[in-house]
Specification:
Blueprint (H helix, E strand, L loop, with lengths): L4 E4 L5 H12 L3 E6 L16 E5 L5 H15 L4 E4 L4 E3 L7 H29 L2 E6 L13 H21 L4 E8 L12 E3 L5 H17 L7 H12 L7 E4 L1 H20 L1 H5 L4
Helix pairs in contact: 1-6, 2-3, 3-4
Family: Belongs to the short-chain dehydrogenases/reductases (SDR) family.
Protein name: SDR family oxidoreductase
InterPro entries: KR_dom (IPR057326), NAD(P)-bd_dom_sf (IPR036291), Sc_DH/Rdtase_CS (IPR020904), SDR_fam (IPR002347), SDR_oxidoreductase (IPR051911)
Length: about 280
């Protein structure tokens, strides 16, 4: 079976859109979700029989379950799931409200869990399937002041992917967590990025500096969304896909730095740490 059926969240823009368009050009079937159907109308391939646009509220389990059911009804199965939807919440941890933190986790963590929970029965019945969870390099190397909420949500997504992979391995299902570096999408735009609603005076200088940095970086990120999409297509085509997939030179460099730092801490504190056993 060469042609696959893909279920992609957040497919109206960025990496999700690049992935959907490349797959449709290859003759694969794509169920694409967005908050509104209007957001998906600009996809040039939208009239293809292989394209199923879906309006989904990812915060709602019922909405997610309905979308998965419509995909099965239309295409008969789902082979690859891509949890791509998400947004960046920035602001020092002290400045973020409980509501802001929970909203960020609702989309970045609990929405993928809604998808996983309702798609797994179908994949388990098929005894095959592949789930991609798109995290970020900050979900592996998280030392970024002002990004605590986003970092924490992406670490959570990476951790649950590792656990998921262990749970479904015997069922013929695989899982991959994707760690992109900065990608040239609309991620740093107002639609994909939220600032803390209140910033105390002690943090205002740092916040202004961060705002300036983001404005300068927007549209100049090193990562190519088309190439990232192709990387995922390649990973989905092999018999033993990676559990951890890093994208871009920056992501690889930061990952190596993190691994080196952890190795140094392990070595330096090995004796004292091991001595805590009975």
């Amino acid at each position: 079976m060469d042609k696959k059926v893909w279920f992609i969240t957040g497919a109206a823009r960025g990496v999700g859109l690049s992935l959907a368009r490349q797959l449709l050009a290859r003759g694969e079937s794509v169920a694409a979700t967005s908050r509104t159907l209007q957001n998906l109308q600009h996809v040039p391939e939208a009239q293809s029989e292989c394209f199923l646009p879906l309006e989904v509220d990812l915060r709602s389990e019922a909405s997610v379950q309905s979308a998965i059911g419509k995909t099965i009804d239309r295409f008969g199965r789902i082979d690859v799931v891509v949890n791509n939807a998400g947004y960046g919440q920035y602001g020092a941890l002290e400045t973020l409200s409980d509501a802001e933190l929970r909203d960020n986790f609702d989309i970045n963590v609990f929405a993928p869990l809604h998808v996983i929970r309702h798609v797994l029965p179908h994949l388990r019945e098929q005894q095959r399937g592949h789930i991609f969870n798109i995290a970020s390099i900050v979900g592996f190397q998280g030392g970024y002041a002002g990004w605590g909420s986003y970092v924490a949500s992406k670490f959570a997504l990476a951790g649950l992917t590792e656990a998921l992979a262990a749970e479904v391995a015997e069922l013929g299902i695989t899982a991959t967590v994707v760690y992109p570096g900065p990608v040239r999408t609309g991620f740093l735009s107002d639609a994909s990025l939220k600032a803390a609603s209140h910033t105390p005076p002690a943090y205002r200088a740092a916040q202004a500096s961060l705002d300036l940095h983001l404005n300068e970086l927007d549209g100049k990120q090193a990562g190519d969304p088309e190439k990232l999409a192709l990387l995922m297509i390649q990973a989905a085509s092999v018999s033993a896909p990676p559990l951890h997939l890093f994208s871009g030179k920056i992501a690889h460099q930061l990952a190596q730095e993190k691994i080196s730092a952890v190795s140094q801490d392990l070595a330096r504190w090995k004796g004292a740490g091991e001595a805590t056993d009975y």
